[in-house]
Amino acid sequence: MGLCARKGDAVMAYLRGGRILRVNLTAGKATTEPVEPYADGFIGGKGINVKLLFDSVEPAIGPFDAGNVLLFGAGPLVGTPVPGACRVDVMSRSPVTGALGDAGIGGYLGAELKFAGYDNLVIEGKAERPVYLSIRDDEVEIKDASGIWGHDTYETPEMVRQDLKDPEAAVVCIGPAGERLVIYASIHSPTGNAAARTGLGAVMGSKRLKAIAVRGTKGIAIARPQEFLAACHRLRQSITQVHWYQDVHTWGLTKIHDREMRSIYEVMGATWEGAETICEADFLAKYLHRRVGCFACPVACFDSYNIPQAGSGCVKCSPYGDLTWDLKNPDLMVFWEAFVMCQRYGLDSRSLANTLAWLMELYERGIITAADTDGIPMKWGSPQAIISLARKISYREGIGDLLADGLPAAAEKIGKGAGDHLFMAKGSPSDVHMLPIKTRALAAAVSSIGEDAQVQPPLDFAATRKYIRAQDEASFQEAILRYKDRAEREVGIRQAPDPRVTDGKAAMVRHDEERTAICDMSGVCTWMTPFLGLPVDTEAMANLMSLGLGTTVTVDHLTQATLRMQHVERAFGARLGLTRHHDRVSKAYYRRLRPGDRDRPEIGLTETELERMKDDYYQLLGWDVPTGLPTRSTLEKFGLSDVADRLDV
Question: How far apart are alpha carbons 333 and 412 in whole angstroms?
Answer without folding.
Answer: 34
